[in-house]
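Exam revision sheet. Question 4 asks you to relate a sequence to its structure. Input first:
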Amino acid sequence: MSLDALKTAMSRRPFEPFRVILSSGDGYEIRHPEFAWLVKGGLFIGLPANNGELPERAVFCSMLHIAAIENLTAA
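Answer key, structure tokens:
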């Protein structure tokens, strides 16, 4: 997966939710553009609380392990 593909997915307006799929098979949904932060070498993804409000924690996904992204609105 390229950094440009992630930038494109995150900057789409209107925003289209997508899932990041890792080489391990794990996946993380990004349903709001403010819940993901691109940094050098990877992506932090905010995991929302049960009540759907602000993230209560985040996971780091290394660019080396991001295998694909898939659009959630088409699923």
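Marking note for examiners. The beta strands are 18-22, 27-30, 36-39, 42-48, 55-62, 66-71.
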